[in-house]
């Protein structure tokens, strides 16, 4: 059996995994990223990155690659499908100063992060099968891959998504179904869509929520979310043509024509359906998020529903905070000392618990309120209470500074 030794192994080459590897590189620590797929995956087509994500991307040194490509959103227009009434909601505290969220192509974000890493950092077609500690103690972690490779590492970071193998090994509870599901896609208008890039359109109705965000002059990212029950043989996880037909003919046939037109223009390869899963916030608060040098980040730690658009943003925060704690240890010891890794990992976990749990809670409650319906007290709760008082508080929470990475002498940074 082949044995290789690494300082840090990151499982998963998604946003959390690549960002973690970039953060570690910035502080002089080389990581090996294991990805079970044969290339970078961009399921979901696009995502909205709020101000806290751009703070993290700036700390990682990649924000400049993206800000010139995507404009910040300044306003959202939320239309009640039942009444036709549209509300205007500001998305920036200081309009015109670039503080609103930006919607970006997921693939472009992944490539921007991957470009920061040395060659051979990412090992594709590498599936994790099991984890164990060396018999001498938890200072060295043994990582088994499906091809028979054995890797010894001082740190293992599970960034392997909602169904994380590393999270299960730590003993974290499995994510639960929120009772909601979502369809996402990317629409392309070769002639141009003619909409303002800084304006977001949203539509709400009883049990349904939808919207689209411009990425540039040609591309629009759209989403449809519902809590409608689906039959056991619904088939929504399969054929994208079937998914689009169901959205257009069954779920949003009474939505404004401009939304239907966006859905019809979708590139089939970008269309996906998925149930919306989350981890109970109390499991994040009291669950075992680390063991020795093993921990988790991104969806592996805090899967959440998408209503606050914080899944990818929180993953970027995780990367910077973990990089900061490990970087400070690296600077102190002029290297990564296995016996002291535990303290750095614990510091990271302690810093992220409450932040992650609050985002999981806010996202779930935001979705519950927005899908509450258009009749009676639930409509009053949504329009008069949630949008006026609660949503602005959640909005304030996305203006968060995850800190900066420690400065490491260039001679200590490995390329």
Task: Give a structural overview.
The structure is a single chain. By secondary structure, the chain is of the alpha/beta class. The chain has two domains: 3-71 and 106-177 and 278-412, 3-Layer(bba) Sandwich (FAD/NAD(P)-binding domain), CATH 3.50.50.60; 178-277, D-Amino Acid Oxidase, Chain A, domain 2. Helices cover 34% and strands 26% of the residues. The strands form three sheets. Strands 1, 2, 7, 8, 9, 10, 16 and 17 form an eight-stranded mixed sheet that branches. Strands 5-4-12-13-14-11-15 form a seven-stranded mixed sheet, with helices on both faces. The protein starts with a strand and ends in an 18-residue tail after the last helix. The model has no long low-confidence stretch (mean pLDDT 89). It comes from Dillenia turbinata. Belongs to the 3-hydroxybenzoate 6-hydroxylase family. Keywords: Monooxygenase, Oxidoreductase.
Name some characteristics of this structure:
oxidoreductase, alpha/beta, single chain, 7-stranded mixed beta sheet, D-Amino Acid Oxidase, Chain A, domain 2, 415 residues, 11 helices
């Amino acid at each position: 059996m082949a044995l290789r030794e690494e300082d840090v192994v990151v499982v998963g080459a998604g946003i959390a995994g690549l960002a973690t590897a970039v953060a570690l590189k910035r502080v002089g620590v080389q990581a090996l990223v294991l990805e079970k797929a044969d290339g970078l995956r961009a399921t979901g087509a696009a995502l909205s990155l709020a101000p806290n994500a751009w703070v993290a991307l700036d700390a990682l040194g990649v924000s400049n690659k993206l800000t010139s490509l995507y404009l910040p959103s300044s306003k959202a227009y939320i239309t009640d499908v039942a009444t036709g009434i549209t509300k205007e909601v500001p998305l920036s505290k200081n309009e015109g100063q670039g503080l609103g969220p930006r919607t970006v192509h997921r693939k472009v974000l992944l490539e921007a992060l991957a470009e920061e890493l040395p060659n051979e950092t990412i090992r594709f077609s590498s599936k994790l099968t099991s984890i164990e500690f060396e018999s001498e103690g938890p200072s060295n972690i043994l990582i088994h891959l499906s091809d028979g490779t054995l890797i010894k590492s001082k740190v293992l970071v599970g960034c392997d998504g909602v169904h994380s193998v590393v999270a299960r090994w730590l003993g974290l509870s499995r994510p639960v179904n929120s009772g909601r599901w979502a369809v996402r896609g990317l629409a392309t208008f070769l002639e141009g869509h003619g909409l303002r890039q800084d304006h977001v359109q949203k539509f709400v109705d009883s049990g349904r929520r939808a919207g689209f965000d411009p990425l540039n002059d040609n591309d629009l990212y759209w989403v449809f979310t519902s809590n409608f029950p689906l039959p056991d043989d619904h088939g929504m996880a399969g054929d994208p043509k079937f998914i689009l037909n169901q959205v257009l003919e069954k779920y949003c046939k009474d939505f404004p024509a401009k939304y239907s037109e966006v859905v019809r223009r979708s590139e089939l390869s970008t269309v996906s359906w998925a149930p919306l899963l989350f981890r109970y916030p109390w499991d994040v608060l009291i669950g075992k998020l680390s063991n020795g040098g093993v921990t988790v980040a991104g969806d592996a730690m805090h899967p959440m529903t998408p209503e606050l658009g914080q899944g990818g943003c929180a993953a970027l925060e995780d990367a910077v905070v973990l990089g900061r704690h490990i970087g400070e240890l690296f600077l102190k010891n002029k290297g990564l000392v296995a016996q002291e890794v535990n303290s750095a990992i614990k510091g990271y976990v302690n810093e992220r618990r409450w932040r992650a749990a609050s985002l999981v809670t806010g996202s779930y409650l935001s979705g519950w309120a927005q899908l509450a319906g258009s009749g009676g007290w639930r409509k009053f709760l949504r329009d008069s209470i949630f949008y006026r008082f609660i949503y602005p508080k959640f909005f304030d929470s996305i203006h968060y500074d995850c800190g900066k990475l420690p400065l490491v002498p260039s001679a200590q940074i490995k390329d």
